[in-house]
């Protein structure tokens, strides 16, 4: 009998799902969202090499899916398909494999194995934490597949070892992240947030954007924009839009100048109340104050030469969830 805590992660849990869930033994499926940083305030790099962050994450309705099935003799292998799958290393260093190994090492036995199948919709190296999402989903999926003695706190701790954005992919919703981004506080928000995401033609590596931040700005903000949390709590979408901020946006624009045009153009369209580069970029995120305008904005922005595609998404959505 698996720990009752697992139910917390079951999608639309009801008695039927709970009953079915007991029968899942050979296939565990997890859906996991991308994130946008509503605010990303970056402090000066510390002696430990990390930048202290104050960030507000929001989980969006753009998902990767991870499926795991048992494998013999402790084998762990991964099959990755979908958006940008060819850009992910196949030498056992991908984030899903690392997550499976980590949870097994701490809570499992060496003879436990898994075939991992990742289906990506979240573009790679886009500032949407797709790799972190896959790591979070795999921690949860393997934990259930192998019936490990974990709980949400244990998974959160392992997630923090795998990367700064991994704990939030488990949690979802809207949350304040401090420290390296792994210390999370769920935030009360009202309303639905409609976003248009504009994917760029090439990726940006997170370390290179931080390096540029160090070389140029050096010192960002050390706190959130005043009024942001109040605007989120009251569902004041234009108020949130006016306070979107990202200290990595300047460095990202220096490395990928064409993004400035994407941001400027999108920001001027009807219904758009704010525009920001997501995370370390290069995805540009536009916040709208109503759903109706989203499709038109997505179509308009998609015409720009540096945009390879657009997508309408809503937030906040739950973090990693077990699917029936
Ligand atoms: P960040 O979490 O810093 O915002 P990102 O969203 O910009 O990161 P990711 O899509 O997570 O970028 O990819 C970052 C790097 O991780 C890429 O170079 C990619 O090759 C590597 N990677 C390893 N495993 C995965 C995975 N399962 N999905 C995506 N990227 C992966």
Q: H/E order of the elements?
A: HEEEHEHHHEEEHHHEHHEEHEE
Unique ligands: adenosine-5'-triphosphate
**Alpha-beta content class:** alpha+beta
Low-confidence stretches: none
What fraction, in percent, of the residue positions are helical?
A: 25-40%
Looking at the chains present, what oligomeric state does this protein adopt?
single chain
Could you please describe the fold and organization of this structure?
This protein has 324 residues and is α+β, with helices and mostly antiparallel strands. The protein is 32% helix and 28% strand. The strands form two sheets. Strands 1, 2, 3, 4, 5, 6, 8 and 12 form an eight-stranded mixed β-sheet that branches. It has a four-stranded antiparallel β-sheet with strand order 9-10-7-11, with helices on both faces. The longest helix is centred in the middle third of the chain and has 16 residues. The protein is globular and about 55 Å long. The structure holds adenosine-5'-triphosphate (ATP). The site of adenosine-5'-triphosphate (ATP) has 21 residues, from helix 2 and helix 3.
Summed up, what is this model?
This protein has 11 helices and 12 strands. With 324 residues, the protein is α+β, with helices and mostly antiparallel strands.
Topology:
Blueprint: H1 15-23, E1 28-42, E2 53-71, E3 76-82, H2 95-107, E4 113-120, H3 130-145, H4 152-162, H5 166-171, E5 174-179, E6 183-186, E7 193-200, H6 206-215, H7 228-234, H8 237-243, E8 245-246, H9 249-255, H10 259-267, E9 272-277, E10 284-288, H11 294-302, E11 307-315, E12 321-323
Parallel strand pairs: 1-8, 3-4
Antiparallel strand pairs: 1-2, 1-12, 2-4, 2-5, 5-6, 7-10, 7-11, 9-10
The structure holds adenosine-5'-triphosphate.
Adenosine-5'-triphosphate binds at residues 87-89, 94-96, 118, 124-132, 134, 165, 206, 279-280.
